[in-house]
């Protein structure tokens, strides 16, 4: 009896160790001149692209999900894949920015738009990147700064990225304006789209709203999935309970853009322009937290509601 008990105990300990190991020590970071490669057991998960002069902001590209499925589109970083639309060149894989910051668009890419520039790494260790960036206007003025923390995880075939963005009003007051063009976004693999020549995707949010109707709705999370040759794969985005105006609104289009945006109330709810403005006083800051979960199966099969609740509780 004692031998059986010890065998069971050892089995549980081995399982617990393996579970912890694949969450933390399986992830490695390799810094280059333009990117930090994030690997899981030696295989690429994503690149944090921080110093590419062609990009108007830091991005994560590519993002490799379960069964080696690319989770974001190639364009505009590479030539478009079959079925990809060559539209919205500012929708570059996975990013954080906003369309109206002191009147300047950091969302778009054009002559009079802003640029988010890498300033320095504050931490580059284990599974975590912490970086400081400056938001520079078209005339070279620093509008604000941010400190972004990216933590990477693996659980079996599933992958996750926890994103924490602290916006710092370092130079003066900063207003994030009321516009739908923001903020924590991803442009999906075209198969995960809800419309298009290769689209097979479906979408649902935490409130049970499905399909294109999730646009402009408030929800704690949204989830997209689609069938691939290797099986069903999806991504879900979590809005943290401590975030401003949680649960957030979602700028979630049927053509592959999905973005959490707590500022665009004018567009989402047809309220007066400026309703969603956020003013950050000089010397102050505000932090937003999100999780991107790349998973096997759809929202129900991947138990997204349960995993959101666990993440929200653990990360408070």
Overview of this protein structure:
This protein has three helices and 18 strands. With 316 residues, the protein is mainly β. The protein has one domain: Distorted Sandwich (Beta-galactosidase, Chain A, domain 5), CATH 2.70.98. The N terminus is likely disordered.
Overall average residue pLDDT: 93
Q: What CATH architecture would you give?
A: Distorted Sandwich
CATH topology: Beta-galactosidase, Chain A, domain 5
What is the H-and-E element order?
HEEEEEEEEEEEEEEEEHEEH
Strand arrangement across the biggest beta sheet: 6-7-8-9-18-14-13-12
* Uncertain residue ranges: 1-22
Largest sheet: 8 strands, antiparallel
CATH classification class:
Mainly Beta
The domain tally reads: 1
Shape: globular
Number of strands: 18
- In angstroms, what is the radius of gyration? 20 Å
Give a brief rundown of this model.
The protein has about 325 residues and is mainly β. The chain has a single domain, classed as Beta-galactosidase, Chain A, domain 5 (Distorted Sandwich).
Distinctive features:
3 helices, Beta-galactosidase, Chain A, domain 5, four-stranded antiparallel beta sheet, mainly beta, about 325 residues
């Amino acid at each position: 009896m004692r031998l059986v008990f010890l065998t069971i105990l050892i089995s549980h300990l081995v399982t617990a160790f393996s579970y912890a190991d694949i969450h933390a020590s399986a992830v490695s970071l390799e810094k280059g001149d333009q990117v930090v490669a994030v690997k899981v057991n030696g295989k690429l998960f994503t690149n944090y692209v921080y110093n590419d002069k062609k990009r108007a902001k830091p991005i994560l590209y590519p993002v490799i999900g379960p069964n080696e499925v690319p989770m974001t589109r190639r364009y505009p970083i590479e030539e478009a894949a079959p079925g990809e639309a060559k539209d919205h060149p500012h929708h570059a894989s996975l990013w954080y920015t906003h369309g109206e910051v002191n009147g300047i668009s950091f969302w778009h890419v054009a002559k009079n738009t802003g640029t988010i520039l890498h300033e320095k790494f504050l931490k580059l260790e284990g599974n975590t990147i912490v970086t400081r960036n400056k938001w520079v206007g078209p005339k070279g003025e620093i509008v604000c700064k941010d400190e972004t923390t990216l933590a990477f995880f693996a659980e079996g075939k599933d992958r996750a990225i926890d994103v924490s963005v602290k916006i710092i009003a370092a130079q003066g007051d900063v207003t994030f304006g009321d516009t739908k063009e923001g903020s924590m976004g991803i442009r999906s693999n075209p198969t995960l789209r809800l419309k298009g020549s290769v689209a097979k995707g479906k979408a649902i949010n935490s409130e049970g709203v499905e399909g294109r109707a999730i646009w402009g709705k408030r929800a704690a999370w949204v989830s997209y999935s689609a069938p691939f040759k290797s099986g069903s794969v999806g991504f879900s985005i979590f809005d943290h309970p401590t975030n401003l105006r949680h649960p957030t609104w979602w700028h979630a289009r049927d053509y592959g853009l999905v973005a959490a945006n707590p500022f665009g109330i004018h567009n989402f709810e047809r309220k007066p322009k400026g309703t969603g403005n956020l003013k950050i006083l000089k010397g102050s800051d505000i932090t937003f937290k999100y999780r991107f979960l790349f998973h096997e199966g759809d929202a129900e099969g991947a138990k997204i509601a349960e995993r959101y609740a666990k993440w929200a509780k653990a990360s408070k």
